[in-house]
Specification:
The protein is mainly alpha-helical. It has helices at residues 2-14, 17-46, 51-87, 91-118, 120-126, 134-146, 148-163, 167-191, 195-220, 236-267, 272-308, 312-349, 353-368, 372-385, 389-415, 417-438, 440-456.
Length: 461
C-alpha cells in the first residue's frame, strides 16, 4: 500500500503534464460520455412513446440534478481535499475524508428518497410537470428516488478514485452501469410494457451495478484510499474542508437543478412540445460538454497535487494545456452540432415538427458559443482544486445563477419562444466575460511561478 501511494505521488508530481493529463482524462472522458449517452438513451427510448413522455423526462431531469448536486458536492469536495492531502502525504486523513463523504452521501440520499416518495406528485408539479406529463413524471421519478442513496454514494466514490489518479478504476464502474442501462431500456419500456417507469428502473439497476463495482475497488485494495465507517469523522473541521472545496460544485450543480426547474416553468406556457424540445437540447448539450468536463476532471487531481506540493509551474502548464485543447475540441463539436442540429433533434422526436424546429434553434444557439466554456470550466476546476473557493464559487454561481435564471424568467415573457432559445447562450457569453477578471490573480501567481525557475537558472551578477 505504501509503495503504491509513493508511486502515485511521484507520477503526479513529475510526469510531463501533456502526458499525465490525457492518461487521467481519457478514462474520465469515456465515463462522462457514456454516462451522458445513457442519459440520452432514456430520452431516446421514452420519446418513442409520446411527446408528453419526453417532456416528463425533462421534468425528472431536475430531480436527477438534485441527486447529482448532493453526490458531486461531497464527491468533488472530498476529492479536491484528498488530492491536497495526498500532495502533503497525509494518507490517513485522506482515508477519513473519503469515508466521511461516502457515508454522508448515503444519509442524504436516504432523506431525499423518503421525502420525495412521500410527496411525489406535488414534487413533480414543483419541478414543472404539466397535467399531461404528470403521470409519466411520477412513474419515472419513483424509481429514481429509490436509487438515490446508491447514486449519491457512487458519485463520491467516482470522484475520490479520480482524485488519487485512479481514473481507469472509476471508468470501469461507470462504464459497466451505462452498458447495462442501454441494454435494459428497450427491454423494460417496450417488451415488459413498463413505459417511462421502465426507463427509470433500468437506470436504477445500472446505477446499483456501478455502485458495487466502485465499492469493490476500495474494499479489495485496488484503490489507495480505504473506506470504512470506523474512519468517519463527524468533525466540524472535516466537513468544513469538504464543503469548502465542494461549495463551488454545490452552487454549480444546485443552480443547474434550479435552472432546469425555471426552464421547465418558462417552457410550460408553450406546451409539451416546448418542454420536449428543451429537454432534448439539455441532454444533447450535456453530452457534448461532458467531454470537456471529463478532460477537466483529469486535470483537477494534477492541479491539487502539484499546488500543494509547491510545484505551481506544473499547475500553470497543465491549466493552459487544458484550455487550449478544450477550446479547439469544443469548436469542432460546436460546428458539428450547428451543421446537424435538425437531424439530431429528429432522432428523438422526428414526427413532431414543432419540437424539431424549436430544439434545432436552441441547439445551434448554444453550440455557437460553446468554445467559450473551455476557459470558464478549466478556470473553475483549477480554482476549486487548489482551494480558492471564493473565486471558484463566483464562477460557479455565474452561468446558471447570476445570468441564466434572470434571463429565462425575463426573456420568454418579452420575446416568447426565442427567449427560451437565447437565454443559455447569452448566459454563457456573460459568464466568459466575468471569468477573465475573476481568474486574474491566480493566473498572475502561476505565471510568476512559471518564470521563477528560469530566472533562478540565470548566472549571478
Amino acid at each position: 500500500m505504501a509503495q503504491d501511494r509513493e508511486a502515485r505521488y511521484i507520477r503526479m508530481t513529475t510526469e510531463p503534464v501533456t502526458k499525465l493529463i490525457p492518461s487521467l482524462a481519457v478514462p474520465t472522458i469515456i465515463s462522462m460520455l457514456v454516462t451522458s449517452f445513457y442519459n440520452m438513451a432514456d430520452t431516446f427510448f421514452v420519446s418513442k412513446l409520446e411527446t408528453s413522455a419526453t417532456a416528463a423526462v425533462g421534468v425528472v431531469f431536475s430531480l436527477m440534478a438534485v441527486i447529482q448536486t448532493i453526490g458531486f458536492t461531497l464527491g468533488v469536495g472530498s476529492g479536491a481535499y484528498i488530492s491536497r492531502l495526498l500532495g502533503r502525504r497525509e494518507e490517513e486523513r485522506a482515508d477519513q475524508a473519503a469515508s466521511t463523504a461516502f457515508f454522508t452521501a448515503i444519509a442524504f440520499g436516504v432523506v431525499l428518497a423518503v421525502f420525495g416518495l412521500l410527496f411525489l406528485e406535488p414534487f413533480m408539479r414543483l419541478l414543472g410537470a404539466t397535467e399531461t406529463s404528470l403521470s409519466h413524471a411520477c412513474d419515472y421519478a419513483r424509481y429514481i428516488l429509490l436509487g438515490a442513496p446508491l447514486m449519491t454514494a457512487s458519485f463520491v466514490m467516482n470522484n475520490n478514485l479520480r482524485s488519487e489518479g485512479s481514473a481507469l478504476l472509476a471508468m470501469a464502474g461507470i462504464g459497466a452501469g451505462a452498458v447495462i442501462n442501454i441494454a435494459l431500456d428497450p427491454l423494460f419500456i417496450f417488451t415488459f410494457n413498463m413505459g417511462t417507469g421502465g426507463a427509470a428502473l433500468a437506470t436504477v439497476i445500472s446505477q446499483t451495478v456501478s455502485f458495487f463495482i466502485l465499492l469493490s475497488h476500495f474494499l479489495s485494495g485496488r484503490s489507495g484510499i480505504r473506506l470504512s465507517i470506523r474512519r468517519v469523522r463527524l468533525q466540524m473541521e472535516m466537513f468544513r474542508e469538504i464543503l469548502r472545496s465542494g461549495f463551488p460544485t454545490f452552487c454549480r450543480q444546485g443552480l443547474a437543478s434550479t435552472a432546469s426547474i425555471f426552464l421547465n416553468k418558462a417552457a410550460h406556457p408553450f406546451g409539451d412540445a416546448a418542454l420536449a424540445a428543451m429537454s432534448i437540447t439539455s441532454r444533447v448539450m450535456m453530452f457534448v460538454s461532458s467531454a470537456l468536463i471529463g478532460f477537466g476532471q483529469g486535470f483537477q487531481p494534477v492541479a491539487g497535487f502539484n499546488y500543494s506540493a509547491g510545484k505551481k509551474e506544473r499547475v500553470h502548464d497543465a491549466y493552459w494545456f487544458c484550455v487550449r485543447v478544450g477550446t479547439v475540441a469544443l469548436a469542432v463539436l460546436g460546428g458539428l452540432v450547428v451543421a446537424f442540429a435538425p437531424g439530431i433533434v429528429a432522432l428523438f422526436q422526428g414526427e413532431d415538427a414543432a419540437v424539431v424546429s424549436l430544439g434545432a434553434a436552441a441547439l445551434r444557439a448554444q453550440a455557437i458559443v460553446l468554445p467559450l466554456q473551455a476557459f470558464v470550466i478549466m478556470s473553475n476546476m483549477m480554482l476549486q482544486s487548489i482551494g480558492q473557493s471564493l473565486s471558484a464559487t463566483i464562477l460557479a454561481l455565474a452561468r446558471q445563477g447570476l445570468f441564466f435564471i434572470p434571463l429565462i424568467v425575463i426573456l420568454p415573457g418579452l420575446i416568447l419562444e426565442p427567449g427560451l432559445v437565447l437565454s443559455q447562450p447569452l448566459s454563457d457569453i456573460l459568464t466568459f466575460a466575468i471569468s477573465i477578471p475573476v481568474t486574474l490573480g491566480i493566473r498572475r501567481e502561476l505565471r510568476q511561478a512559471k518564470r521563477a525557475p528560469a530566472a533562478e537558472k540565470l548566472p549571478n551578477g
